[in-house]
Amino acid sequence: MTRSDNDSWDLASSVGATATMVAVGRALASRDPRPLIDDPFAAPLARAVGIEFFTRVLDGDIDTQIPGASPARTQAMIDGMAVRTRFFDDYFTEATAAGIRQVVILAAGLDARAYRLAWPAGTVVYEIDQPEVIAFKSETLAGIGAVPTATRRTVAIDLREDWPAALAAAGFDPAAPTAWLAEGLLIYLPPEAQDRLFDEIAALSAPASAVATEYVPGIMDFDREQARAASTQLRERGLDIDMGALVFAGARSHVMDYLTGQGWAVTGVPRAELFTRHDRVLPAPEEDDVLGEIVYVSATR
Ligand SMILES: C[S@@+](CC[C@H](N)C(=O)[O-])C[C@H]1O[C@@H](n2cnc3c(N)ncnc32)[C@H](O)[C@@H]1O
Hey, what CATH topology would domain 14-300 get? Predict the structure, then answer.
């Protein structure tokens, strides 16, 4: 399915299915003998979506081995989700230690941080995503008796619409410092929407706010055909996600420069450094790696 201006999805289709995919990654990473993260909600949420391929992966019925890839590379994909999740978990721990009590998770997907992190009393967590995604997560977690560990407020809207107005209507306080997160989002936004997103975040950020995201420096060279070939391999194994059609490639702002230009003090940590920090092995990139390097970014202002 190719993207269009007003496309929408649930967690089993289009961009929504990528949220389920990363939840599966968190579930597998949580089972690691040396876990960096503990997300007890990832597996029940991903199972509830009901994509057979992912359910079978979680059941251990399908080898998580990527066809043609070494076991080390497959493990590195799971470790990649572990270090990414841990980076943003640590970001929120630091933000709340610095006194921030207002959090906005953009494109929250099946992110269960509002239920699994130890938020200080008084913290409000806003989650923004498409209406079907938000409703599914709220209902599924309520159904298994999960209780948020902060005040959780949901904002069911497309980020291409007037989400700042919807956030304000949900109670967001622009005078309070905020910790923002845009995880696993930017490659699904057209380049100009990425800039607009950071402009809107900056406009809503009181002094002492923070923002975190990740970006793919090589997205300019993203090879749609290569991504299609990878998707074909997955389709043969029962998973129908065409990453080549979901991602917006081509020239876009360099995230760290863009944030710096807005007055943020920016830090970027390459994925390889996170692997070293957490004593994980990152195999050398292979020819068919679709995205290549990823840089994890946090900033304060
Ligand atoms: C790869 S998932 C990441 C989800 C979550 N941040 C995580 O890391 O687990 C991408 C998410 O972006 C959301 N998303 C992408 N474009 C969006 C848009 N225009 N409006 C609202 N949500 C969007 C999708 O619904 C999906 O939940």
Answer: Rossmann fold (3.40.50)
